[in-house]
Structures are given as structure tokens and as C-alpha cells.
Amino acid sequence: MKTLIAAYSGVLRGTGSSILSALQDLFSITWLNRSKVEKQLQVISVLQWVLSFLVLGVACSAILMYTFCTDCWLIAVLYFTWLVFDWNTPKKGGRRSQWVRNWAVWRYFRDYFPIQLVKTHNLLTTRNYILGYHPHGIMGLGAFCNFSTEATEVSKKFPGIRPYLATLAGNFRMPVLREYLMSGGICPVNRDTIDYLLSKNGSGNAIIIVVGGAAESLSSMPGKNAVTLRNRKGFVKLALRHGADLVPTYSFGENEVYKQVIFEEGSWGRWVQKKFQKYIGFAPCIFHGRGLFSSDTWGLVPYSKPITTVVGEPITIPKLEHPTQQDIDLYHTMYMEALVKLFDKHKTKFGLPETEVLEVN
């Protein structure tokens, strides 16, 4: 209002310089407000995914159970019937939606950090691939944005390739959450699903497996570049059985977006986490990011730190119906060496010193 009054006063005085100055002030204020709105939209877009990841499945399960006890019980019965008939759809790659993958909300999600996808080599549409994604971080935000949405244009960078991000099978037992996940091309990380995608879904499939899983998330902390890989060989065996090429993928900055309480080995906290990991499949972490309205407060919104996912060179894998342990060890060693080489080649480009070493556990 004061700016408009100043402009009006300039007109009355007949001074063009006053009008110009007032208009410049007005446009600068408008741009500032737009910038603030953009930032808040980015924060909200990230928060909605974090809350979906953490509570959507449980909340929808509770609502479904409650609906059975109300006058709207028929809705619950219809959905439950649909769930029974549709139970095995996730095991066949799900039901991806290009419309959902192209939602504008994912572009705000991308720009909040920001997140980018770096391609180093082509992926052939005549081959199938298993991309090992490292590190897990707390939520694998880079994996989700790059491979379950089109925010970073994965389909344009790798034309003809269908990415499937694999996650805990338990998520697909949750009503509504399962539909949300499948719409982005997310599938269960189990043998039945991977066997189907690599043998009965044609070629051009790229399954993204966060190899370190829950165990790796427990050591996620800013400033640490460590992966849980040395004894993780199941994905190599699957690749050999289907002749799917292995692609090392490292996400710089994935560990920077949340801070967590790290429990020492042997402590009661780590004991509880390992029990959850063993019997339920995930390990509860005590973590925090920033608040919704201020970066100076604690909350569930991750810190806005850059995440850059680099997709490395494919390792050609032969098809061996019954791979021996020697075969598995050979290609597992090749994969570890390729991952370390990828890290070393790109680390200085994304803010790490030349002396930084990737810790392989």
C-alpha cells in the first residue's frame, strides 16, 4: 500500500523518476512474495511425501477398519473385495500412471533440495538391468524422485527404459498407500516380483534396489559416505539367473538431508532396531529435519541439501541358470570395484574432497 501511495504521489508531482522508483519497488516486492510462495510449495510437496511414507498406510488401514463399523460399511466391503482380487498386481510390476509420475508437485519436490539425475552411459532397450542404489539414507529421497517420478526426466535420459523402484513388500499390504506407490512404478523388493519383471515383462526393465536396506539406514548421517554391501550378494545372484546387467548408482548428498541419533553397537537402542529389522523388515530411526515454517526448528521436513544421483556404467552379466558361489563372488567383486570407481570419479564434482574415501561395509 505504501508503495502504491508513493507511486501516486510521484504522478501528482509530475516526476517520472519517482514513478519509476515506485514501480521498481512494487515489482521487487511481488517477486519476493512469489519466491516465498515457491519455497513454501516446495516444502509442502516434500512434507506430503514424507507423511505419506510414514503414516498414510497405517492411517488408511485404521480408517478402513472404522468404516466397517459405520453406515458406510459397503464402501469398505467394496474396497476390501477389490483388494483381494488385486492382491498380486504389485508382484507383476504394479500399475504405473504417467499422469501421476508427471504431477507438478514432483517438480517442486525436486527443486526443494534440489535433486538431479546424472547419466554417464546409455542403457540399451534390448537388455534388462538391476541398478544398485547407494546409500539408503533415511528415506531414499533421491531414489524416489529420480526413478518414481518424471521430475528429473528419467524417461528422456534413458528412452525406452522402464524404471521400477523396489521397496518393502509390507507397504503393498496397506490400503490406498499401495495404489499410491504403484502409480509411481514402485514394486515389492522380493524374488517373485524381480523374477517376473526380468523374465516375463520383456526387455528394457530397470529394477532399482537400495542394496543396503534398513541396516544401511541405521548408519546414515551427514558427512558420512558408507555403504552396506560386502555381504549383500542376493541381487548379484538374481542378475546372473536372468542375465540382467548390473549398474552401480551412487547418490551424493542422500545422507545429508536428515540427522539421526546413532546408537552404538551393543546398546539397547541398537538391539531394538535390529529386532525390528529382523522380524518386520525395517529399522525404526530417531531422526529429524527442519520445521515446516523455519529451518531453525526441528521437524520432519528434510534439510534442503543437494542430492545428485549418478548412474554408472553397466556391467555385462551372463545368464547362468544355476550360478555357483564362485560366479556370484566374482561379479559381486566387480560390482564393488565399479561402485568405488564411480564414487572416486565424481566425488570432487559434488563438494567432496579428493581425500574422501567410500567406506564399504
Automatic annotation (TrEMBL):
It holds the Pfam family DAGAT. The keyword Hydrolase does not apply. Keywords: Acyltransferase, Cytoplasm, Endoplasmic reticulum, Glycerol metabolism, Lipid biosynthesis, Lipid droplet, Lipid metabolism, Membrane, Transferase, Transmembrane, Transmembrane helix. InterPro entries: DAGAT (IPR007130). GO terms for molecular function: diacylglycerol O-acyltransferase activity; retinol O-fatty-acyltransferase activity. One of its GO terms (biological process) is triglyceride biosynthetic process. It catalyses: 2-(9Z-octadecenoyl)-glycerol + hexadecanoyl-CoA = 1-hexadecanoyl-2-(9Z-octadecenoyl)-sn-glycerol + CoA; 1,3-di-(9Z-octadecenoyl)-glycerol + (9Z)-octadecenoyl-CoA = 1,2,3-tri-(9Z-octadecenoyl)-glycerol + CoA; 1,2-di-(9Z-octadecenoyl)-sn-glycerol + hexadecanoyl-CoA = 1,2-di-(9Z)-octadecenoyl-3-hexadecanoyl-sn-glycerol + CoA; 2-(9Z-octadecenoyl)-glycerol + (9Z)-octadecenoyl-CoA = 1,2-di-(9Z-octadecenoyl)-sn-glycerol + CoA. GO terms for cellular component: endoplasmic reticulum membrane; lipid droplet; perinuclear region of cytoplasm. It is a multi-pass membrane protein. It is found in: Cytoplasm, Perinuclear region; Endoplasmic reticulum membrane; Lipid droplet. Pathway: Lipid metabolism; Glycerolipid metabolism; triacylglycerol biosynthesis. Its EC number is 2.3.1.-. This is Acyltransferase. The gene is DGAT2.
